[in-house]
Design brief:
Length: 411
């Protein structure tokens, strides 16, 4: 079997060839004989710069299907997993295969915003229900065909609660900002800055760093003193930045604006340097809710035979977000009673109200996620470093409100 092209028919027992490890799906009750499968295509980073996230994302997708018995509305669930390579060209090739050859009923697009946007532009042509794993620009939802659903919210929308929290709860009045110089870094921090400035705060500095950066020394030596440092980097940059931040003797409070990129494994490597960092995310495994604890228990029960590097525990949040995307597609099919026509599924997703492990999830008419937003803080219990919720903004549209737009200068 081609390890980059995996097709899983859940509801029967199959042996799956995975990158780095074998996985055996649990047997589930067989669906009615001859029932047409519900096909969900998922574009995952089997190769490329995000390949280290693969085990969590793949396991999250499989858990979403297996925990409903591998079937929905009397039909077996078939996950067709393809390699996005975290790049536009291969992702578009695989998206075309999924839509035109495999005839999937829904498709889950890659995590990187520029790749997800390219795939969504393609699926708009067919109207195939399209679910995002992570945050992307609002423009992706503003196309005539309403077939895109962004449960995690937009880039600007994920950042703004942190700006409110920094001013209202932490008492910060000045901030210095630093981030990767591409769309995610720009928008995550801009949303946080807008809310902070609207509340009365002042941004005294903003630094953008190139994606090929190897040394943050010039930026750290130029960093101005402020009440808080707002930053956002992709994971391998974030770890290097925080390490050098403390090596240079800086001690301002750190806020990872927009969404947390530090996994528990990265925090373990940073050790106590990670303690006290503030960020935001909707689907962390450390959220103190019964539904989340039950979800983590299901994950560990399912994958407890694996090693940590094989995703024994949901330590990388992209796995939880992938779980959400697949499960939302399944819930939409359940809502239609098994009708997998594009029109029926898109309408069902727009009207869906699902009680997820992290609380109620629904969508606006144009596909924006509505749900609880958690401000999180790095804590340590025993030898474990993890994100714990410290504040909740309940049932908000995960989009920067109009009254905040442009509050902070475009520095």
């Amino acid at each position: 079997m081609n390890k980059k092209k995996l097709s899983t028919l859940l509801g029967i027992c199959l042996a799956l060839g995975m990158i780095a490890l074998p996985f055996t799906a649990a047997c589930a009750p067989a669906p009615p004989a001859g029932a047409e499968p519900v096909k969900i295509g998922v574009l995952l980073p089997y190769t490329g710069i995000n390949a280290d996230m693969l085990p969590w994302m793949e396991n999250g997708a499989k858990l979403a299907a297996s925990e409903v018995g591998g079937e929905v509305a009397g039909r077996p669930i078939q996950l067709i997993l393809e390699d996005s390579a975290t790049d536009i060209a291969p992702s578009l090739d695989k998206a075309r295969k999924l839509v035109e050859e495999d005839k999937v009923h829904a498709i889950v697009v890659p995590i990187m915003s520029h790749v997800a946007s390219a795939v969504r532009a393609y699926t708009a042509e067919s109207g195939t229900p399209t679910l995002y794993i992570e945050h992307c620009p609002i423009q992706d939802l503003q196309q005539p065909v309403k077939n895109a659903f962004m449960h995690a919210g937009t880039l600007l929308g994920r950042g703004y609660p942190l700006g409110l929290y920094a001013y209202d709860v932490m008492g910060a009045r000045t901030a210095t900002v630093i981030h990767d110089d591409f769309v995610a870094g720009e928008d995550f921090t801009q949303g946080t800055m807008d809310a902070f400035v609207y509340s009365g705060g002042t941004i005294i500095q903003r630094q953008r760093t190139p994606m090929d950066i190897m040394d943050y020394a010039p930026y750290l030596t130029a960093m101005k003193e402020a009440d808080i440092v707002m930053f956002w980097f992709v994971p391998f940059h974030a770890q290097r930045f925080v390490t050098q931040f403390y090596e240079y003797g800086l001690d301002m409070p750190l806020m990872e604006a927009g969404c947390a990129t530090f996994s528990e494994m990265l925090m373990q490597q940073l050790g106590d340097k990670s303690l006290g960092m503030i960020s935001d995310h909707a689907y962390m495994p450390g959220i103190d809710r019964p539904g989340v604890k039950a979800y983590v228990d299901r994950w560990v029960k399912t994958y407890g035979h694996l090693t940590e590097a094989q995703a024994r525990f949901p330590r990388i949040n992209e796995g939880n977000s992938t779980y959400m995307s697949v499960r939302l597609a399944i819930e939409a099919v359940k809502a239609t009673g098994g009708d997998t026509s594009k029109e029926a599924l898109n309408e069902a997703l727009r009207k869906l109200k699902w009680e997820s492990p992290w609380g109620l999830i629904s969508f606006t008419d144009y596909g924006l996620g509505i749900g609880d937003s958690f401000v999180i803080k790095v804590v340590k219990e025993g030898d474990r470093y993890y994100w714990k919720d410290v504040h909740t903004y309940e049932q908000i549209e995960r989009l920067e409100p109009d009254y905040l737009k442009g509050a902070a200068p475009k520095m």
